[in-house]
Amino acid sequence: MTRRDVALRTGAPVEIGQGPVRMRITHTGQETNIIELRVEYDKAEVPSRAYYADYSAVIKGRSGISLIFGKLKPGTSVLRTKVEVVFPVEMFIRQLWANSRDLYEKTRVEYEKRPLEPVEDLVDTDTVQAFRANNVMVVVMSEEALLDFYYIAPSEVHYVYTKRRTEVALDPVIRIVMSSSLLHEMLGECKAIAERIPDFERIMEGV
Prior knowledge:
This protein is an alpha+beta fold. The protein contains six helices and eleven strands.
């Protein structure tokens, strides 16, 4: 009998997996176990795609929350290009917003020093790339902010849980670079949308 089998029989949590993603399994005594994932971003591969944004928007869509990042033509309200990163609703709250609450307050100082001019009469663009993500690492240094987006496929969790693989693959999606002021503006929109989601309080209880 393996260490994992013993742990699941006794109800003690056990951590498995190699690489940047570790899986913690807790036996509940019911048909399903509790599976928690911990990501060590310092061990993760850096996304090969990178995009600089000076415009952002957060929109609740049919099957997730869309984070829109755009590049305006200098001195105009015309979008040259844009990138859309779609998060599942629960991971949007649990992974993005819950982990960014302190950062939202810290970037307020930078925003007050360097407030952004409002974008009026925005002219949209059809030049857009869309991605799916369920994890993000956010780093801020003075005026600069960095968001590295990743995706963990359900199949990866399944294969490690069933012992077919030993490592949960963490797919690097895209790196978004922006000003700290724009990040504060974006997180403010995230806050407003997250708090209007019906299951917000229930999801936050498990964070």
